[in-house]
């Protein structure tokens, strides 16, 4: 009889714990201000966004929309390829 009571209490506590986890502010996407869909976490700074939101943001600039951490490789030196092409043309 007593055992049954204890089991019930634990079940209630687990249910409450689950509810508090669901209210975690970390599930909100700072780009669309909605709940994160297909959660994608940036490996350097740990900020999370919807996959589609992050894709769109990275198309503009490959930086974290929250802390401006730089991601991806910016190809700012196309000259070696350009000179090769020139050589090919001549
Ligand atoms: Zn989003
Ligand atoms: Zn960040």
TrEMBL record:
| UniProt keyword list | Cytoplasm, Metal-binding, Transferase, Zinc, Zinc-finger
Q: In which pathway does it act?
A: Protein modification; protein ubiquitination
Residues in domain RING-type? 29-68
Q: Which GO terms describe its biological process?
A: Notch signaling pathway; protein ubiquitination
Q: Which InterPro entries match?
A: Deltex_fam, Znf_RING, Znf_RING/FYVE/PHD, Znf_RING_CS
Q: Which reaction does it catalyse?
A: S-ubiquitinyl-[E2 ubiquitin-conjugating enzyme]-L-cysteine + [acceptor protein]-L-lysine = [E2 ubiquitin-conjugating enzyme]-L-cysteine + N(6)-ubiquitinyl-[acceptor protein]-L-lysine
- GO terms for cellular component: cytoplasm
What does the record give as EC number?
Answer: 2.3.2.27
* An MF annotation (GO) of this entry: ubiquitin protein ligase activity
Q: Where in the cell is it found?
A: Cytoplasm
Q: Report the SMART domains cross-referenced here.
A: RING (SM00184)
Gene3D superfamilies assigned to the protein according to its UniProt record, in alphabetical order: Zinc/RING finger domain, C3HC4 (zinc finger) (3.30.40.10)
Name of one Pfam family that matches: zf-RING_2
Keyword Translocase in annotation: no
Q: Where mainly found?
A: cytoplasm
Q: Which family does it belong to?
A: Belongs to the Deltex family.
For this entry, the protein name equals E3 ubiquitin-protein ligase
Organism of origin: Paramormyrops kingsleyae
